[in-house]
Design a protein that fits this description.
Blueprint lengths: L2 H7 L2 H15 L13 H8 L4 H13 L6 H11 L7 H22 L6 H9 L8 H19 L10 H26 L1
């Protein structure tokens, strides 16, 4: 299934976790003395829908507290501000889709710059990664895998089932993107 199809079929838990994972992967390396993982509270809200509004507020406050946030963190903060506090499925679907696009756009930006980047991101979401660079195609595959993992968890599973594996996969993606950003900064410098 394509990323678009998986987002369309996901339940509220899958959408919340997918959106949180996309934003989490794109957070830039934290500055010294700042919260190393400002989105950590959001993961707890993914596990238990009753905690979502409070954990969302905590994550928003943590991002708001970042001193001189880079552009990427500002984009993440904007999307976090648009996350539905009531976890309505349709609003979560819209939000998770926007988080997906942001993550793919950021990954595409660290691949070779291309004039057709927006079109390429759209094609990757539709299941056609031809011509995508390694970061963009890797992020597309990661998003697909996360949504597939969450879809495999049955309704009878415990509330937070599968989130540890999603977090681990997301953390690995975060390391890859941060390493690419660091390499790109060294090349420019």
């Amino acid at each position: 299934m394509s990323l678009l199809e998986l987002i369309a079929a996901a339940d509220a838990r899958g959408l919340a976790a997918s959106g949180a994972a996309c934003l989490d992967r794109c957070l830039p390396q934290p500055a010294a003395g700042t919260e190393p993982d400002p989105l950590r509270p959001l993961w707890a809200g993914c596990a238990d829908p009753r905690d979502w509004p409070d954990r969302l507020a905590e994550a928003r406050a943590a991002l708001d507290a970042l001193p001189d946030p880079p552009e990427t963190a500002l984009r993440i903060r904007t999307l976090l501000g648009e996350a539905p506090a009531d976890r309505s499925v349709e609003e979560l679907r819209t939000w998770a889709g926007a988080c997906s696009v942001l993550a793919l756009d950021i990954h595409c930006g660290h691949d070779t710059v291309r004039a057709d980047a927006t079109e390429l991101v759209g094609r990757c979401r539709a299941g056609d990664p031809e011509g995508a660079g390694p970061l963009l195609s890797g992020e597309t595959a990661r998003q697909v895998r996360i949504l597939e993992m969450l879809a495999e968890i049955g309704d009878a599973a415990p509330t937070g089932a599968g989130l540890r594996q999603v977090m681990d996969l997301s953390t690995e993606g975060q390391r890859v993107l941060r390493a690419a950003a660091s390499r790109r900064a060294r090349v420019r410098g």
